[in-house]
């Protein structure tokens, strides 16, 4: 098997068109387990026609920010900004801190490496006097968690990507972020990545600068309407955390039964390793199942959660097919 089998999929998940081209005879429909996006989406509320025909009013976006701030336990609304996805925020922040000596805790989401290509790659124990420290917490792809107290003790400006913190709110730096810039993602936990919604929580001066850069309509009225409903629905959020936890435990059992070594993750995904992971990637692809490979360690694969019993069965069948060939 050549490296070409996994090359298009190493930067980030979700590349189903590339997968269909790579494995044209694969079973359909495709099962996308390559991302950390919940397979169960928040039910989209009915929307008035003018949500689609009018530009979103600033006051309406402000209502969304207020609802999110309540969930994040924030009191100062001048310190939160709705953005069109946390990935966009990462790229913009990369332009604001170009002169600082930066380091990032690795492994890390690939978008951070794009935003800060010159940043030193270190571990938490190697942080000393850096001017800018970037990390994801919980981390992607291995689920590593650094305690909020330890993060508050880091030197310089800290940027914390909390894209997966909705599944484990206790690991968040919020509300006592101590000057850190915190990024939150809506789409992963709520299963609606396509609407592109996230938040930056930072000192008011940074938020105002970002708000000016994004302009008068930073997000769509559709994103504001759905996000407002979802953040106000605490019961749904509690149910979502519970079913994600149960599904992750089921995935652990299934991967373990196939002799994969589970390295970590969150309740939205698991990182696993095996000496023959590249062969497993191909067998899964031939079965119409896309997982996430990594260029830095070709023994590793990240698995998201199947959405239905049919998908669970297809995954189990493909894993059994691979196990039989070992």
TrEMBL record:
UniProt KW Coiled coil keyword: no
The EC code for this enzyme is: 4.1.1.81
Catalysed transformations (reactions): O-phospho-L-threonine + H(+) = (R)-1-aminopropan-2-yl phosphate + CO2
Q: Which PROSITE patterns match?
A: AA_TRANSFER_CLASS_1
Instruction: Give, as one word, the top-level EC class.
Output: lyase
Task: Show the Gene3D superfamilies listed in the entry.
Answer: Aspartate Aminotransferase, domain 1, Type I PLP-dependent aspartate aminotransferase-like (Major domain)
Q: Which UniProt keywords apply?
A: Cobalamin biosynthesis, Lyase, Pyridoxal phosphate
Q: Where is the Aminotransferase class I/classII large domain?
A: 54-308
The cofactor(s) it depends on are: pyridoxal 5'-phosphate
In which pathway does this enzyme or protein participate? Cofactor biosynthesis; adenosylcobalamin biosynthesis
Glycosyltransferase found in the keyword field: no
**What NCBIfam families does UniProt report for this protein, alphabetically?**
L_thr_O3P_dcar
Q: Which PANTHER family does the record match to this protein?
A: HISTIDINOL-PHOSPHATE AMINOTRANSFERASE-RELATED, THREONINE-PHOSPHATE DECARBOXYLASE
Purpose: Decarboxylates L-threonine-O-3-phosphate to yield (R)-1-amino-2-propanol O-2-phosphate, the precursor for the linkage between the nucleotide loop and the corrin ring in cobalamin.
Q: What is this protein called?
A: threonine-phosphate decarboxylase
Which species is listed as the source?
Parasphingorhabdus litoris
Question: Organism classification, top ranks?
Answer: Bacteria, Pseudomonadati, Pseudomonadota, Alphaproteobacteria, Sphingomonadales
